[in-house]
Amino acid sequence: MDQKIINRRDLDFLLYELLDLESLTQRPRYAEHDRGTFDSAVDLALRIAVEKFAPHNRKADANEPTFDGQRVSMIPEVKEAVDAYCEAGLMLASHDYEQGGMQLPFTLAQAALALVKGANVSTSAYVMLTSAAANLLLAHGSEEQKKRFAEPMLEGRFLGTMVLTEPQAGSSLGDIRTTAEPAGDGTYRIKGNKIFISAGDHELSENIVHLVLARIKGAPAGVKGISLFIVPKFLVNEDGSLGERNDVALAGLIHKMGYRGTTSTMLNFGEKEGAVGYLIGEPNKGLSYMFHMMNAARIGVGLGATMLGYAGYLESLDYARTRQQGRLLDNKDPSAPPATIVDHPDVRRMLLAQKVFVEGSLALCLYAARQLDEQKTADSEQARTEAGLLLDILTPLVKAWTSHYSLEANYHAIQIFGGYGYTREYPVEQIYRDNRLNPIHEGTNGIQGLDLLGRKVRMHDGAALKLLGQRMRETIDEAAGFDAPISGWAQELAGALATVGDVTRVLLERAAAGDVSLAFGNAWHYLDMVGHTVVAWLWLKQAIVAQRALDAGRDEDFYRGKILACRYFFLYELPKVKQQADLLRRLDDTLLQAKESYF
Amino acid sequence: MDQKIINRRDLDFLLYELLDLESLTQRPRYAEHDRGTFDSAVDLALRIAVEKFAPHNRKADANEPTFDGQRVSMIPEVKEAVDAYCEAGLMLASHDYEQGGMQLPFTLAQAALALVKGANVSTSAYVMLTSAAANLLLAHGSEEQKKRFAEPMLEGRFLGTMVLTEPQAGSSLGDIRTTAEPAGDGTYRIKGNKIFISAGDHELSENIVHLVLARIKGAPAGVKGISLFIVPKFLVNEDGSLGERNDVALAGLIHKMGYRGTTSTMLNFGEKEGAVGYLIGEPNKGLSYMFHMMNAARIGVGLGATMLGYAGYLESLDYARTRQQGRLLDNKDPSAPPATIVDHPDVRRMLLAQKVFVEGSLALCLYAARQLDEQKTADSEQARTEAGLLLDILTPLVKAWTSHYSLEANYHAIQIFGGYGYTREYPVEQIYRDNRLNPIHEGTNGIQGLDLLGRKVRMHDGAALKLLGQRMRETIDEAAGFDAPISGWAQELAGALATVGDVTRVLLERAAAGDVSLAFGNAWHYLDMVGHTVVAWLWLKQAIVAQRALDAGRDEDFYRGKILACRYFFLYELPKVKQQADLLRRLDDTLLQAKESYF
Asked: Chain B: nearest CA to A203, how far in angstroms?
């Protein structure tokens, strides 16, 4: 049985019908592209995903990397897949032609990455981290750093990492203790212990380029004293050849519930004389540079979570279409042949729940990616600025809402498989284990709630939230011109949007009055409320497109499925906005009252 | 670090303050008991749990049983634990003195079993299944069957199983195909393939007693043609000694996400001449007998799920009390020492969510167990009948609500541990994997929804739901006499109860009108709504007890914690009743409209 990755019809719908990606070919940057080259890129990524990533997905799970004290070993298929990805040029999908890239829209590059993630999320981590690290260097590194490190990374000769967390500092990066001391020659000596470094050691590539957060001695406390360094596993000579081993040691591999093919490492920097590090940009601005990578990683986490949700949906759908069990509720004849379980209302409930979560999540991820294209290539300065704002405010939703609900989708997928779903013979149990990481890494979902409420909705005097509201109102106005049920959903979305605005005002006023803990204590629920509203909006947008297609007599079942899913979301999910809003508006202090000794 | 199992203070609160277990000592059956003997039984079970079950919990997970084609091998600690449990007499905790039992209340026996489940759910399965199988034989077997099979099971010399599922028949037992043919000597020859048989093979005991559902040739189709047979692994001679190997073969072990210490087996009956089987009771009534065991197993699943939820809660609470990370939201001084994470509102939210789910679930499980004691020993016939009705209607909630929400609790536990929670170095990832089975086995949670709405609320003209409502109203009346907030919660619960009644009427009327699929299609949501109402009631009962204790000046923090948890439940969880009710009342046909081709 082939591993399920995507419903290509849905992906095309999202890219071309919802997000109108073809319109980008009107812009100078993408002038050489057309629908054909876009499709070819997706075809290429899907082929790599199917041929190189999917086949060892289960094998990598069952055969974790090992460390004998000297070297990390893993199954050879991981390297073959990473190499194939790089050789196909997918690491450079969105990069300039001059860099050897395909100069594809970022949205399309994300779609390509999504396919590889859906096929094998743990192997995809190696390329995703490398791509994000290289892009950080392209944005903030010196010309020499770009040449010496970023270029080999984009070629796949070197792989990259992001090295933030320490045993005592995970969510609280301001507390990192790793030090950097100037060596007198422009380089630094790095010393400290890091943990949970994904892809932190392996032999997949000639070299590993660690991007490491550390404090230059004497730097201010907290996040304002953090600098960012390139610390390669092997030093790189001026001619690009590898020099000696740097003072970075693998202290051990971490064994995880899932994502088992990705090494998760404890790294010791500077056990001897100190690891050689190269400062990126200016001292003490490291965290702001790292956010370039963290934002990419957060979007990547959301995309990976979404694709795991999507894979579970497709697997359970396939099972539901073939498995026979029981009789329909209004058939009490025991001698009648069993029903196919896709026809049981409870199974349809679990399929629809998955469909709205995963297709809604993918729409959200790709909509966010589309903003990156707008930010880069929109005609006006205003449009570019607005796209940046939307991307900023959507990022915590892309990371947290999708990872929360795609895991809930996976719960349903297992449930549809019944006892089989719990066994390691079927794919959904690994998917569920893999996906459990996504609400944690790159900033826990609780942290994302604080990022959304405490930072993103407040920045620029609330400009991002206001803009998001404007975009939603445009859709509401458009939907109001349709017949029921779409016009009714427009009203419901308008209500939810007003609720979000009202709750936001209540919370921010209270925060401004000094009760920050009370105002922000339920930030997760706030994110959940906003996320549901945004995804409802994206479903309404899909329903509008689908209704127009139906009116034009096209592809009936696919579009009816979209409209039915929208109906499910508005009926089963959107009402949660009101419940969350009621909770948030009360500014109840239950959480603050919960003394440690009460537990 | 010691494995966490229970907050003994809470267990004592539930047993003695909420459920007034000491009052049972007034009844003849328990006259020789007092609080001291009750406590000793709990102490004993806790000691066995801590000393024999907990120490190999992780080891059994990491070292699954193996099958070499001849024999099943597993780590020796499993047998030591099972033996210790039996030698301590815990298999007979609630049985008559004449049977060698302790004649303890069933509620207490369940509490004892809970501790062992919390320590090691996969090893506990061997004793739980044996106990439930032996009790079925005591209730429905012949005297000879009791002597030859049930007695050695209660001694732990033989272990038991329940053998229902076949590859094509899981939720739909009416479709089983295993056959039973009379051998002419009063015995039968059983042939068929069974799957997902927990504890279906091992060498933990001299013998394994399978209770097997099969069809006697010529029996009616469906559930009315199913009979129940004893099929021992080894035949048992009249003197109780073991005879030859029966024709039951292990076709293979199933590898699961969790519960890895429990063998899950495919068994082939009658590959040769047919397995010797002994009919229990009358032909074609097998499913009704098996329900004796299935109900016990469903309560056992709920209890196990609850204890896994509880364990995760305690582990994450312990971590939250020691882990330092970040600053409180209103402290922006980066040089201040980090906060203990238990003081972050978002962590408190996740702790309170766990507390209300797991302590609420344990209250529900023990309240249900208490009904078994009432059913057996209440003074009046009416009281005994009523207890039986309550137990019947609570069983699907005990199985499904607890398993759903204890897994949600485990999600929060991992989240509190952050990245560490996802690693196999910490206990919560195993707990999460173990607990994922519980919404599936012994009737999926979807099936439980149908059992509740389609069967339990309708039986005896709705007598069980009416009675449950009466019990809730008694609490509401009592709570109305308190000050706020308790009196306010009484009103809210009254509202939820009225809502449940109203929704039930709407659904049953529609079902009676013939639209069964429409009326019952959202049965899971119905169960969720009723479960939330029932657990809110149990929290209100706890709050009343706690307020009285506070008024009497006792044990302040513990009781304040109970009241705060009740507040959390009413604020964060109970509003979901209204949302579910709104959905159910609409009798919307979205699920019925979801044609296979729409997905």
From this structure: 23
Q: Is the pTM of this model over 0.95?
A: yes
- Mark which residues 418-457 of A lie under 8 Å from B by CB: 418-419, 421-425, 429, 432-433, 436-437, 439-441, 444-446, 449-450, 454
Nearest CA in chain B to A441: B419
d(Cα B145, Cα B327) in Å, to the nearest integer? 66
- DSSP β-ladder status, B207-216 and B227-232: antiparallel
Instruction: Measure the CA angle with vertex B502, ends B486 and B519; round to 5°.
Output: 130
Tokens of B370: 């208490």
A157-285 carries CATH number 2.40.110.20: yes
DSSP state, residue B427: T
Residue B442 annotated to the active site: yes
CA dist., res. A178 & res. A226, Å (int): 10
* Cβ distance of A522 and B349 shorter than 8 Å: yes
Q: Residue B366 and residue A540: Cα distance in Å, rounded?
A: 46
Architecture of domain A8-153: Orthogonal Bundle (1.10)
For residue B123 the two structure tokens come to 């090893």
Euclidean distance between CA atoms A113 and A120, whole angstroms: 11
A522 touches chain B (CB under 8 A): yes
Tokens of B313: 């809660």
Tell me the two tokens of residue A50: 């199917």
Q: Tell which residue, A120, A116, A98, has the closest CA to residue A44.
A: A116
Phi–psi pair at B38, nearest 5 degrees: -60, -50
Give me the tens of pLDDT residue by residue for chain B, a chain 599 residues long. Answer: 489 999 999 999 999 999 999 999 999 999 999 999 999 999 999 999 999 999 999 999 999 999 999 999 999 999 999 999 999 999 999 999 999 999 999 999 999 999 999 999 999 999 999 999 999 999 999 999 999 999 999 999 999 999 999 999 999 999 999 999 999 999 999 999 999 999 999 999 999 999 999 999 999 999 999 999 999 999 999 999 999 999 999 999 999 999 999 999 999 999 999 999 999 999 999 999 999 889 989 999 999 999 999 999 999 999 999 999 999 998 888 889 999 999 999 999 999 999 999 999 999 999 999 999 999 999 999 999 999 999 999 999 999 999 999 999 999 999 999 999 999 999 999 999 999 999 999 999 999 999 999 999 999 999 999 999 999 999 999 999 999 999 999 999 999 999 999 999 999 999 999 999 999 999 999 999 999 999 999 999 999 999 999 999 998 999 999 999 999 999 999 999 999 999 999 999 999 999 999 99
Q: Are strands A179-182 and A207-216 parallel, antiparallel or unpaired?
A: parallel
Cβ–Cβ below 8 Å for A324 and B440? no
Report how far apart the first and last C-alpha atoms of chain A are (Å, whole number).
48
Cβ pair A558, B305 in contact under 8 A: no
Task: Give the Cβ contact number of residue B263 at 10 Å.
Answer: 28
Nearest-neighbour CA in chain B from A544: distance (Å): 17
Which chain A positions have a beta carbon within 8 Å of B257's beta carbon?
A: 422-424, 429, 432-433
Encoded tokens for A483? 């017949």
Give CATH for domain B158-284: 2.40.110.20
Q: Write the single-letter amino acid at A16.
A: Y
CA A226 to chain centre: 25
CA distance linking residue B548 with residue B563, whole number of Å: 11
- C-alpha to C-alpha distance for A54 and A431, rounded to whole angstroms: 12
- Rounded CA separation A250/B207 (Å): 50
Task: Report which residue type is found at B356.
Answer: V
For B450-471, give one letter per residue: b (16+ CB within 10 A) or e.
bbbbbebbbeeebbbbebbbee
If 0-12 CB within 10 Å is exposed, 13-18 middle and 19+ buried, where does residue B186 land? Answer: exposed
Residues 231-250 of A with CB under 8 A from B: none
Residue ranges of domains in chain A = 8-153, 157-285, 445-590
